[in-house]
Amino acid sequence: YEITGLYGLDSKRFGYNVKFINRSLWPSINLRAYDSAFEGNTIGGGDDIWFRERGGEFALGLPVIHRISPEVITSVSRAGARLRKFEGLDGCIINRGNDLSAALFGEFTLARMPERPVRDLTPGWGQTFFIGHERSLASLGSELTGRNTVARLTQFAPSPFHHHGIAFTLAHQNQSGLLRYNAVGAIPRGYDINGAEGGFNLRNKLSLSMDYHFPLWFADRGIGMTLLHLRLLRASLFADYGAGWNGDFDADTWKRNVRTSIGGTLVASTTTLYVAPLDFGVSAGYKTVEKDWFFGLIFGLPMNAGFSGRQPAGFRECLRGLRWE
């Protein structure tokens, strides 16, 4: 289980996120309940607003280990139902007859991780593939309709330098309906799904990215070795290239809308209370077309903490970006 308490400095309110997974059964049972505040255009309308989102999730999971030597091949399948209810904050009012989403969803993740030195930041010539689909259904009582499909393929490659590595990622997202879904990883870093620039407010997005990961310091030290243990200080350089469009794919439209962002990250990988992994750091980048800088904060569990005991490698960090105007 995982219990997280939250406090929003801007929203000035408390929230929580509670997850429970029972892996003693097959399929595994996944439960989640949360109450948080966000700023965005999740429920449509074209403008960012502050809103409260409460929700619950029930899913069944099928984790499978297909091979353990000389490479580890694993897959995870999840399917379930998700309930989301929205409430306006900071003077914003949401129609009470149009504030509920009830959806079914399914996800599939496949990973191939060749054997490698434990300090390598990427898994040699490994690959990961993810596909997920969610649909809100009026037959389940949903008042907000929406559909979202995401597919992402990452190919890793070794570097000539020890423990360095490269990740190439191809990601596509297709969404429709009143709900607006998170597009992290499907659009270049520094952009958001509400902006007309790059066409990222349209139904389809396609992006290509390259991340070069390298260690700065294998610290392996901390406060009492258990309270807060710094395992690694790492950095990365990235380049993202992507655009959005409506309707069928058209190469000319995609090239006309395409946007590029370049930048880097600095992350401290720690372990708290001996067992809980925690990453925190900063990210900064530059949008080449708009000539605009952006930066973000990285804080939370490693993206693949529940999937592999090794360092996160090549997974797109979830950044809450802030722009310098």
In short:
With 325 residues, the protein is mainly β. It has one helix at residues 251-257; strands spanning 2-8, 13-22, 28-40, 49-67, 71-88, 100-114, 127-136, 146-158, 165-177, 204-217, 221-223, 228-245, 259-272, 276-287, 292-300, 320-323.
General description of the model:
Helix content is 2%, strand content 59%. It is globular and about 55 Å long. It is an all-beta fold. A hairpin with a 3-residue loop joins β4 and β5 (71-88). The protein has a 16-stranded antiparallel beta sheet that branches.
Q: What percentage of residues falls in helices of 4 or more residues?
A: under 10%
Cα separation of the termini: 41 Å
Largest sheet: 16 strands, antiparallel
Number of helices: 1
Number of strands: 16
Return Rg in Å. 20 Å
Mean of pLDDT: 85
**Helix and strand run:** EEEEEEEEEEEEHEEEE
Please state the structural category.
mainly beta
Oligomer: single chain
| Approximate strand percentage | over 45%
Low-confidence stretches: 303-325
Gross morphology is: globular
Itemize the secondary structure elements and their pairings.
Layout: E1 2-8, E2 13-22, E3 28-40, E4 49-67, E5 71-88, E6 100-114, E7 127-136, E8 146-158, E9 165-177, E10 204-217, E11 221-223, E12 228-245, H1 251-257, E13 259-272, E14 276-287, E15 292-300, E16 320-323
